[in-house]
Amino acid sequence: MTDTAPAAPRGIDPRAPRFAAWITSALLLVATFLGLIGASARTGSASFGWFAYQPLANSAWGAWTLPATPIGVRVLDPAFVLTVVIALLFLWGVVSPTTSPWSVLFRRVVRPRLAPPTDLEDPRPPRFAQGVGLFVVGVGLLLHVLGVPLALPIATAMAFVAAFLNAAFGFCLGCELYLLLQRAGVFGRGPRAA
Amino acid sequence: MSPILALLVLGALVVIAAVAGVVWRARDGRRRRGSDVVDLTDLGVTPGRVTLVQFGTETCARCPQVRRMLQGIASALPTVDHVDVDLTHRPDLARAHRVLSTPTTFLIGADAVLAARFNGVPRRADVEAALSELPVLQEAS
What we know:
The complex is a heterodimer.
Chain A: H1 15-37, H2 71-76, H3 78-95, H4 101-110, H5 124-145, H6 151-169, H7 173-176, H8 178-183
Chain B: H1 3-27, E1 31-33, E2 50-56, H2 63-76, E3 80-86, H3 91-96, E4 104-108, E5 114-119, H4 124-132, H5 135-140
Parallel strand pairs in B: 2-3
Antiparallel strand pairs in B: 1-5, 2-4, 4-5
């Protein structure tokens, strides 16, 4: 088929982004688990580990201990470390989709075992989706460093839902909602030369 | 949070995501009827022609498959056109036609009235059924 838009780059196997989405959703599920059992979701006024916790009496954050946790502990939280790795993989997928680890793994190991693709897909939507994933987990990482409880597991859970819908149903949430994001002011508004 | 509770939360998360996917798939591409007159400015529609207007963006993963299907339908019917509108840099058009997600397809009659609207990937039979209800095509057949 040659009826793709004139400016569209060369097509990719549509199964490659789905394959990557399965791995990404598994990693995000593990990150969410670690986030829920880690520093981000810890409550109570007891001292824990190697430093004492000062109870925040009547604070808006209630019994969450993360705001009083030293920044070094927040950053070394296993959920944070894993989410940084996931964020770097998203970044790789945005900057250089063809050399990203899951895409290489798909080409070397998976694709030779499959029938040739019946159809090729525009590489721009999955690349954009990686950027949306990077943005979501990036916000979670930032808020976690700033000491917002539950921000990290909520961000990874949201990214998981998006990755899972992509892997299992072929829905690219970020792609479909591009216009909604645009309207919300995430991208430039005015008409530009294409 | 205890590991058991965390696992329960994860289980709920997977169930919610799966249900959302099933519901979305069931609703996706369903035909909605319309009766408004469509402002044809900048849509590339020839006035007086029955037109399938497909809205897409550069980031729309499922638009190419819809484009192929609609082109196939339009090329088989001499009185029907297919136009593709790229909204990537045209938020004004997206707002004017209340397009919030892509692909979105309008079936616009010869009188510029919106005959059907499909949000998502339309089923071929639904598009053909909507076309067959238009007066122009009934006369032609």
